[in-house]
Design a protein that fits this description.
CATH topology of the largest domain: Rossmann fold
Number of helices: 14
CATH superfamily of the largest domain: HUPs
CATH architecture of the largest domain: 3-Layer(aba) Sandwich
Helix content: 40-55%
Shape: globular
Low-confidence stretches: none
Largest sheet: 5 strands, parallel
Distance between the termini: 35 Å
Mean pLDDT: 91
CATH class of the largest domain: Alpha Beta
Structural class: alpha/beta
Strand content: 5-15%
Order of helices and strands: HEHEEEEEEEHEHEHEHHEHEHHHHHH
Strand order of the largest sheet: 11-10-9-12-13
Length: 391
């Protein structure tokens, strides 16, 4: 394993003159720079050339980013391959008294976090859909930023003919949401339909009315709207052979701001490991190429639109507060005391951490999705649902 320096040291000690490493190293935001720094230090320390060849492609939640590299030990030259696509280069290995690598350096492209994350999401989506034989995908398009970014990534991955969006309005759906969902579809030239859930909701409500007798209206009715949409999307999926892409993000998954069997119903989650803050950054980044996501979607306050005048901020702290706390607790294993010491309100921190711990049961039941961080929800972070421990 090239990540262990002992591996390199032993090979050099045994007389290796060139190290060729065939790797299957999955992408995370920080890994490309970490790899390069590590391999460069080996070359400098052990005076041996390294040819690092990394796999390219998506497999379930993992995306292998390629980004192969060749390091010369004689002249400090480095050859970097393309990321997120196959790439072929020629090198010549000459052995006289010493091994020498001959190759032409390519102009080095400046490393961009957002570009790499976006490309990872596109490749992961493309390969999951294609390698598993789906005809295309279908997305519930709410007129919000999460579904807009998901649809745009799917378009970049699969093309316009294989991406389908559905707006499913109800009484609390703003007219601007309907307009923005249509504008997004027009900008992407993708098929778009509008299916009202009013009759579906009424049918469910009528059937449940006797059981709900004397009960106050509460979150049940809000969640029922979301589940009507989930049923609609899954029916279309079954009939048309399309994969449903869910549109939830990491921030929502962390605190349980979602409805089981509603907006979590689907087969693949593109934004599962993407915080809400990063969703906005990626949307703005993509619009720099071509402005396909309507600006109103990016600028308006996020809302689930399950109740009159509802906004995410009614239930959650501002994402500029929420997302750093999630990152510190989930990805960096920081304790409540350590997080509070960063200047956050103790009551707010403890409420968020309780939500993260409590909603493990929801996260166990959502689709797999693309990993981009050092620790995602899933294989990277395994906590029991049934436990009495509190941080």
């Amino acid at each position: 394993d090239i990540w262990s320096e002992d591996y390199v040291k032993n090979l050099v000690t045994e007389g290796s003159e060139v190290i060729i490493n065939l790797s299957a190293s999955p992408f995370t935001i920080t890994k490309k720079m970490t790899r390069e720094k590590m391999l460069s230090s080996y070359v400098s320390k052990y005076k041996v050339p390294i040819i690092y060849l990394n796999q390219v492609g998506g497999q379930d939640e993992l995306v292998f980013d390629g980004a192969s590299m060749i390091f010369s030990h004689t002249d400090a030259k480095t050859l970097k391959f393309k990321s997120f696509e196959t790439d072929t280069r020629e090198i010549e290995i000459i052995k006289n008294k010493k091994i020498e690598l001959i190759f032409s350096e390519m102009p080095e492209k400046e490393y961009e976090d957002l570009e790499d994350v976006y490309n990872a999401l596109v490749l992961g989506t493309k390969d999951y859909v294609n390698k598993n034989g789906f005809n295309g995908i279908i997305i519930g398009s709410s007129g919000g930023i999460d579904s807009a970014l998901t649809a745009t990534i799917a378009y970049d991955a699969l093309g316009s003919s294989r991406v389908n969006t559905v707006m499913m309005p109800f009484d609390f759906t703003a007219e601007m949401s309907i307009e923005d969902a249509q504008e997004l579809a027009d900008n992407l030239s993708i098929p778009h339909s509008v299916i009202s859930i009013k009759e579906i909701y009424k049918a469910f409500s009528d059937v449940l009315k006797p059981s709900f007798k004397d009960k106050e209206i509460d979150k049940t009715e809000e969640n029922l709207q979301s589940r009507c949409r989930g049923v609609t999307l899954m029916a279309l999926s079954n009939k048309l052979g399309y994969l449903v892409l869910t549109t939830g993000n990491k921030s929502e998954a962390a605190v349980g701001y979602s409805t089981l069997y509603g907006d979590t119903a689907g087969g693949f989650s593109v934004l599962k490991d993407v915080s809400k803050t990063l969703v906005y950054k990626l949307s703005k980044y993509r619009n720099l190429k071509t402005p396909v996501i309507p600006i109103r979607i990016i600028e308006r306050p996020p809302s689930a639109e399950l109740a009159p005048d509802q906004k995410d901020s009614d239930s959650l702290p501002d994402y500029s507060i929420l997302d750093p706390i999630i990152e510190m607790y989930v990805e960096k294993d920081m304790s409540p005391k350590e997080i509070i010491s960063k200047g956050y309100e103790e009551e707010e921190v403890r409420r968020i951490l309780r939500l993260i711990d409590f909603n493990e049961y929801k996260r166990r039941q959502v689709p797999i999705g693309i990993k981009i961080s050092d620790r995602n929800f899933g294989k990277d972070r395994r906590y029991p649902i049934t436990n009495g421990w509190k941080p």
